[in-house]
Design goal:
Layout: H1 3-12, H2 18-30, H3 37-49, H4 55-85, H5 88-93, H6 96-117, H7 124-133, H8 138-161, H9 167-207
Amino acid sequence: MDLEGVRTTLLSAVGPNAYPVFFGLLISGSLGMPVNSDTLLILGAVLAATGHLDIQVLIIGAPMTILAGDTINFFIARKHGKKILATRFFRRWVSIEKQAQIQDFATRHGAKCIFMTRFTPLLRAVTFFISGSVQVKPKTFFAMNGLATWIYVPSLLLAVYFTASHLQEWVDGYQVFVKGALTATGLALFYFLAKWASRRWMENGNAS
C-alpha cells in the first residue's frame, strides 16, 4: 500500500468524509484486499496526533470496523469456503485428505491460531478464511478474535499517537515486527503441526 498516497487521500477528505475513507480502507483489508491495516492504523494515529482525526473515534471505530470485515470474511468462508477449496485450482495445492487433516488441526488448536493471528500482519484474512472453511465454531472465532483485536488495535493506536513525532522510527520498527511476527508464527505452526503429526502417527501405530 502506498502510504503517502493514502495520507494524501485522507488529508484531502479531512472532516466528516475522512472517517468513511479510513474505515472503508480498514474493512477492505479485512476482506483480503491489498491494504495493510497496521500501516493504516499507524497513519491514522499520526493524523490524529496532528489534529486531522479524532483519536477517540479511531479507538472505538477501528476495532469495530476490523471485526466487521473479519466476520464477513469468516462467514463467507463458512458458507462457500469448502466449494472454493474443492476447486481444481485449490486441490492442486491442498488435497481432500489434507483438508480433512487441516480441519482436525483447526478443531484442536483453532482458538490459539485465531488469537495469535491478530498479532501477525499479512496473514489475517487468509487465516480467518481458512478457519471459516474448516468450520471453526463461531463463538470461538468471535471470542478469540474479539479479545485480540480489542487488545491490539487500541494499543497500537495509542502507542503511535503519543509518539507520533517519531513516525520513521515507527515505520522501521513495524517492518522489524512484521518479520519477527511471521517468523514466530511459522515456528509456532511448525511446532503444533509436528506435535499433531506425532500424535496421529502414534494413534495409527496403536490401531495397527
